[in-house]
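Hi, here's the filled form for the chain we discussed.

Project: internal
Contact: R.S.
Residues: 385
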Amino acid sequence: MSTFTLKHFTRAALAASLAFGAAAAMAQAPIKIGAFLSVTGPAAFLGDPEQKTLELYVERINAAGGVLGRKLQLVSYDSGGDAEKARTFAKRLIEQDAVDAIVGGSTTGETMAVVPLVEQAGVPFVSLAGAVVIIEPVKKWVFKTPHTDRMACEKIFVDMQARKISKIALISGSGGFDKSMRGQCLKVAPNYKIEVLADETYGGGDTDMTAQLTKIKNTAGVQAVLNAGFGQGPAIVTKNFRQIGLTVPLYQSHGVASKEFIKLAGPAAEGVRLPAAALLVAETLPDADPQKKVVVGYKRAYEERFKQDVSTFGGHAYDGLMLVVEAMKRAGTTDKAKVRDALEGIKGFMGTAGVVNMSPADHMGLDLTAFRMLEVKNGDWALVK
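And the returned structure, exactly as it came back:
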């Protein structure tokens, strides 16, 4: 073999060896899932179960062999419900941590602050927040798992129609979700022949809504009250509602779809209705219900691990993580553009929120059948028959 040929062979072998080594290193490198969540602060009832869920299922997925032959690594930050902190942490996840996808954004405000960053960077982002503005208009890299506030209004109005209710009062909080849901309810109410006779609001730090509810009580013709809000506000509204002797039906949003709301509102919660995922009534679903296996499996795993009641908010995180994992499996790679395309093409995925059918025009993929109408009965959730 000539000197030239030997050198050429040696260089080729070295290049092949380096390429193989790089590929092997890539195969061993973890897949990074980024998250920014309201683990503490006023929205901790959202972020805490979301964080616990992501930790639990990253562990379970890794124990089962990981994804595409690689382990998952959760890189998570506590934004405390602060939109500016969320933006800072998202920037860090993208630029420093170099995550493959982001699952997070407990609130609408946090989510919307981050949208421009993920759109510019081209990182698949699955939000866990509720407002319809997150996905309408469609944003290329942004998806979400919870039902929208508009869907909540529509589900409630359908139930009101069945109860022959056509004249209502609205009371809503001042947060991003609260304002958005109020706007959506006002927008779609005429479609269901619902007339809004009173429209009251309260501040995020308010501890008594008696004045607003008294105005509603004194408004002639009101047949039901709808509270658009989340956090402690709706529990206070519920207590004050009973205290001043209002007896018409009271509806809440899916923003309080956890046992925590019942605990905070106490006996006053009895009879309250709201739309929510089947997760809250998982074990009472008929065995033939195709969603039962998923929601019971998640509920039992979460409650066994953390010794606390499951919430739909943790379920949103479960769905977000599993959708990203499913997209990576379908794409056969962690290439961000291919994962995004795979997310957009997911059909028939059963999550805790319902059956997900994504499309280029729909980055949530849920319809009204994914919502169940629930009522508080004997201090627990029950399906409205």
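Let me know if anything looks off before we file it.
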